[in-house]
Specification:
Elements (H helix, E strand, L loop, with lengths): L3 H11 L3 E7 L4 E4 L2 E3 L7 E7 L2 E8 L5 E9 L3 E8 L2 E9 L4 H59 L3 H4 L16 E6 L6 E5 L2 E2 L1 E3 L4 E7 L2 E9 L2 E10 L4 E9 L2 E10 L13 E5 L13 H13 L3 H12 L6 H8 L5 H11 L19 H9 L3
Parallel strand pairs: 1-7, 9-16
Antiparallel strand pairs: 1-4, 2-3, 2-5, 5-6, 7-8, 9-13, 10-11, 10-14, 12-13, 14-15, 16-17, 17-18
Helix pairs in contact: 1-2, 4-5, 5-7, 6-7, 7-8
């Protein structure tokens, strides 16, 4: 493909022709006889060689194509005409004899410029290739370091994990006076259905949306083998006593930088997976006597508040609703957890705890809220709000 300068050189070699120079004050697009011309490298000057004897049309357009100026200029054979474009006007600066051999010199210069540009492009490509190789090596090294850190963290976690025997204190012997041949039940709450799992005698339990717990109704009184896991990590794996006509209610609590179940007996036994745990009354404690549940916000008012929080799309609006409710109401730990769940980020959930910590009626159960956030730093922040 012939460049404009080479094409002009061929024309100049076959017949006497004139030259045209157009200097512009700002970058524009210059058309000569309807053909767009290019600037000389490193300048705002357009040079067109090999123009025939006669009139030629010069048009200046903006970068977006808007016409700014137009002029018809007469060029004689072997004549050079110099024009200037400035402030939307084309003016003639002067005329003179066209320089012999100028077209050939321009063609040679353009060839040299093209070679220089090609060499620069090749050098840039080589530098980019070297940089990519260095980056790949750095990424590989970083990946190896991250893998080593992850392996070290897993080893430390395995070393510090409590044994099965330590994970759950054994339930006290059933009260002979409370013995019943009616079926009992087991519920495990504060365990996410996405990451948690519970088995009784090798059978996986279903998670009840109404109970917000893994539930096993209809268990025969006596010992059953129970396994409780979260993220594949066991928190209990062994025998557990089930009482007739009572529910063995286990709650995962965050203690000593680890999770452990705490279990109590409640009455009556659950008969279905989705039965609400709030309908149960406190019975004999498996580890300590269970106090009566403290009163928080009334059920209907809290249901309306939770519905309003869930309906908002932005966390700032959700927090504003909770802040307003906190000024007039008191809350249980369970209610605080329910208000944390609709918020997307753990940092927003921690903000909910900070807003309501002073309004909580049962702060002794604050450890239960750690199950509503994912990262250890956020769990610590939740607990710190009650210190």
């Amino acid at each position: 493909m012939l460049t404009p300068l080479l094409f002009s050189a061929l024309l100049s070699g076959s017949a006497a022709a004139g030259d045209l120079q157009i200097a512009t004050a700002v970058p524009v697009v210059v058309f000569v006889d309807g053909r767009p011309e290019t600037y000389r490298p490193g300048s705002l000057t357009v040079i067109v060689r090999g123009l025939g004897d006669g009139d030629h049309q010069v048009v200046v357009r903006s970068i977006i194509g808007k016409q700014l100026a137009e002029m018809t200029v007469a060029i004689g054979a072997d004549e050079e005409v110099r024009l200037s474009y400035r402030k939307k006007a084309i003016t003639e600066l002067g005329r003179g004899q066209a320089r012999p051999g100028a077209a050939e010199e321009d063609a040679a210069q353009q060839a040299a410029d093209d070679a220089e540009r090609a060499a620069r492009a090749e050098a840039r490509a080589a530098a980019a290739s070297q940089a990519m190789a260095g980056l790949a090596n750095m990424v590989e090294t970083t990946a190896e370091q991250v893998e080593a850190l992850v392996a070290e963290a897993k080893d430390e976690e395995a070393d510090s994990a409590p044994s099965v025997a330590e994970s759950l204190p054994p339930l006290v012997d059933p009260d002979p006076d409370a013995a019943s041949d009616e079926p009992g039940s087991l519920s495990v709450s504060e365990l996410s259905p996405l990451t948690g799992a519970v088995w009784v005698d090798g059978e996986a339990l279903k998670y009840g949306a109404g109970s917000r717990a893994f539930v096993a109704p209809g268990l025969s009184p006596g010992q059953h083998t129970v396994r409780i896991e979260n993220n594949g990590r066991p928190y209990h794996d062994g025998p557990m006593e089930i009482r007739g006509d009572q529910n063995t209610r286990c709650v995962l609590v965050y203690e000593g930088l680890t999770w452990a179940p705490s279990c109590h007996y409640t009455t009556p036994a659950l008969t279905e997976v989705n039965q609400t745990l709030a309908t149960l009354s406190a019975g004999t404690s498996a580890t300590a006597s269970a106090p009566a549940a403290p009163a928080g916000m009334d059920a209907s008012g809290f249901a309306a508040l939770r519905g309003a929080v869930e309906a908002e799309s932005f966390s700032s609006d959700q927090l504003a609703l909770i802040r307003s409710a906190a000024s007039k109401n008191r809350f249980t730990i369970d209610q605080v957890g329910q208000l944390m769940d609709p918020l997307f980020s753990d940092s927003d959930k921690v903000d909910v705890v900070r807003l309501l910590a002073d309004r909580v009626v049962d702060p002794e159960n604050a450890a239960l809220l750690a199950g509503h956030v994912s990262f250890s730093t956020d769990k610590e922040a939740v607990l710190a709000a009650f210190e």
